[in-house]
Each structure stands twice: as C-alpha cells, then as structure tokens.
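Justification of computing resources. Each target in the renewal requires a structure prediction run like the one illustrated here; the chain below, 172 residues long, is used simply to show the kind of job we budget for.
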Amino acid sequence: MTATHLATRRHMVVDSPYGPLTLVATDGVLSGLYMTEQRHRPPEETFGDPDPRPFAETIRQLDAYFAGELREFDLPLHLDGTPFQRSVWEQARQIPYGETRSYGELAEHLGKPGASRAVGLANGKNPVGIIVPCHRVIGASGSLTGYGGGLDRKQRLLAFENGTGEDTPALF
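Resulting structure tokens:
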C-alpha cells in the first residue's frame, strides 16, 4: 500500500502595476497567479497558508517583466487542468512577447481548427495569468475578447508589451 500525498499549498500577495496579484504554490511550484476580481478565481481558502518562501524567483521574474527587462518567463509551473486545457496554455506560452494570436490560430496549431470556442474557454481558465500569457490571445477580427482579469487589464498588458502604453500603468 502506498501513502497518498496531500499537496501543500502556500500563497502570498504581491503588488503589481495591474493591482495585487495572489501567487499560489503547490508543493513549492507556482500553480496560480490571480488578479483581483478575476473570473474563475478559486476561493481564498484553497490557497493555503501565507508563506513567501516558494515565490522568490517568481517575484524576481515578475519585477523584471514589469520593468520591461524580461520578455519570457522561465519558471517551473504546476498547472491543474484537463489535457486539452494544458495544451492550450502551452500554446499560449509560445506566443512571443508583444505579439498576439487568435483563438482560431491556437486551435489550428493544436490540430483542431474548429475548436476556437473551446480554446477560448480553456484560455479563460488559465490559472497562471501573465506568466502563461493568455492576454496575447485575441478574437479573429483583432478584438480584445474575453480576459479573466478584465478587458481593461488585457488592453493595458498588450499596450505595455507593444511599447504603446503608459510607462507606469495606474494601479487598480
């Protein structure tokens, strides 16, 4: 008989130019980055005890990103989701900084050209916003459709990455 392992979850809240971000780690690996008022944000009681120890590298990379010095995150991630959701999130991670792809383009890359709506639903449940850059996924017409953190944040993140936004975005 094998012992079952209960995952240890920890969290902390950090400030960002886009408002407070709640970081969550499962067994010491980043498993969540949630914005305030985010759609599909899990209940606070699932985040575990407050503990800054698992997050030093995440914070370092986020600070470098917000300072315009980092374009690609290099962090181990623990992403809970269906195999399809994880494949969508992996495709989103392949979108270069400052660029966008449509939901349909991601569906085509996954070999499922008719699945743009399913890609959108999976994208909306991304548990690690910004680091898995779901804000870079847009509608076929170029419209900024759907973003768990709110369309205003999506627009501001894209403007920041394109160099067309304010140098220091206003805090929420």
